[in-house]
């Protein structure tokens, strides 16, 4: 208990700094694989095993998120057989849909230096458009030096540092149609998996980004916004400053003479709303039980087919609450 920094209360024991590396399955004499334990390591790297007690009501619940849950299933032998074999992982269940359907709401932003001080404010107001992009704003950040290679720098060199104080208006695509996949890079659970989200692969997603950026232009050019921008920093200059900022690791192509489609592709960022990989109806059933095995559920954002245009935290928490109540009521009824 001391080595793993355990916390225990009312029959619940929580181990901190203890990461699960593998789900253990009982196969011999079983009609189909049954999860019956986990292998985990503590902060010192020492390996431990924990097993379920006997009884049909006992089960393992994975809540490692959209990246961690499909990764853990694969490391445990549940996933695409050929991919698992390529990493010398013993196949418990050939499940080709584990790691598929990976999505992330793509985000694009426009940086706007403000002549007036603005408070530090995370996203509080969301504009929901009819075409499926969400318009949001965050302010009080300091973007000085962000556009070192931009032609717009010549406008900024002789300005006070306060010039760079402002914020950004962003748009993000709600429920992207484009999806990708997740694969293991190694058998080491501490190594991040390889994830391809295929941002803007579907042209409808790209068009929604373009419409979102056009909406941001209307906001910036509005009378209400006038006092929060420098008049000499025109819309093309703001776009160029943003496009040349180190927003991602993609090669840059955009300049003001190019269409907004190029701007969207060059400046796309994650909003960390990953979902998919263990989707309902494909990897888990309507009770979030993993299809093809017993005593194992996945309850987190990896089960989502879509993610809200706003922060999905509340949705994930309500899923956990709903399933917790449902599981308890089912146990009490039996």
TrEMBL record:
<protein>
    <recommendedName>
        <fullName>Glucose-methanol-choline oxidoreductase N-terminal domain-containing protein</fullName>
    </recommendedName>
</protein>
<dbReference type="Pfam" id="PF00732">
    <property type="entry name" value="GMC_oxred_N"/>
</dbReference>
<dbReference type="InterPro" id="IPR036188">
    <property type="entry name" value="FAD/NAD-bd_sf"/>
</dbReference>
<keyword id="KW-0285">Flavoprotein</keyword>
<dbReference type="InterPro" id="IPR007867">
    <property type="entry name" value="GMC_OxRtase_C"/>
</dbReference>
<keyword id="KW-0274">FAD</keyword>
<keyword id="KW-0732">Signal</keyword>
<feature type="domain" description="Glucose-methanol-choline oxidoreductase N-terminal">
    <location>
        <begin position="65"/>
        <end position="79"/>
    </location>
</feature>
<dbReference type="Pfam" id="PF05199">
    <property type="entry name" value="GMC_oxred_C"/>
</dbReference>
<dbReference type="GO" id="GO:0016614">
    <property type="term" value="F:oxidoreductase activity, acting on CH-OH group of donors"/>
</dbReference>
<dbReference type="InterPro" id="IPR000172">
    <property type="entry name" value="GMC_OxRdtase_N"/>
</dbReference>
<dbReference type="GO" id="GO:0050660">
    <property type="term" value="F:flavin adenine dinucleotide binding"/>
</dbReference>
<dbReference type="InterPro" id="IPR051871">
    <property type="entry name" value="GMC_Oxidoreductase-Related"/>
</dbReference>
């Amino acid at each position: 208990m001391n080595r793993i920094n355990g916390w225990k209360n009312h029959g619940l024991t929580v181990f901190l700094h203890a990461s699960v590396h593998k789900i253990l399955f009982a196969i011999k004499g079983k009609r189909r694989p049954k999860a019956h334990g986990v292998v985990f390591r503590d902060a010192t790297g020492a390996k431990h095993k924990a097993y379920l007690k006997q009884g049909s009501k006992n089960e393992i619940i994975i809540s490692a998120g959209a990246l961690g849950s499909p990764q853990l299933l694969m490391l445990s032998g549940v996933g695409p057989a050929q991919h698992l074999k390529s990493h010398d992982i013993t196949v418990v269940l050939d499940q080709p849909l584990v790691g598929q359907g990976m999505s992330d709401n793509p985000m694009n932003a426009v940086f706007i230096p403000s002549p007036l001080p603005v408070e530090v404010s995370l996203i509080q107001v969301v504009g929901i458009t009819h075409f499926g992009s969400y318009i949001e704003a965050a302010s009080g950040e300091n973007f000085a030096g962000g556009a070192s290679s931009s032609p717009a720098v010549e406008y900024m060199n002789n300005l006070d540092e306060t010039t760079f104080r402002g914020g950004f208006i962003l748009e993000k695509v709600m429920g992207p149609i484009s999806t990708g996949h997740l694969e293991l890079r190694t058998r080491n659970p501490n190594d991040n998996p390889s994830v391809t989200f295929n941002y803007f692969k579907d042209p409808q997603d790209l068009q929604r980004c373009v419409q979102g950026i056009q909406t941001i232009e209307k906001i910036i050019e509005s009378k209400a916004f006038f006092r929060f921008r420098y008049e000499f920093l025109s819309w093309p200059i703001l776009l160029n400053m943003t496009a040349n900022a180190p927003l991602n690791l993609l090669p840059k192509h955009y300049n003001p003479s190019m269409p907004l489609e190029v701007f969207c592709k060059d400046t796309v960022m994650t909003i960390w709303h990953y979902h998919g990989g263990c989707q309902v109806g494909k990897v888990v059933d309507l009770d979030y039980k993993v299809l093809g095995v017993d005593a194992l559920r996945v309850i987190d954002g990896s089960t989502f087919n879509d993610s809200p245009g706003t922060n999905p935290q509340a949705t994930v928490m309500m899923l956990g609450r709903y399933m917790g109540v449902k599981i308890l009521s089912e146990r009490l009824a039996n």
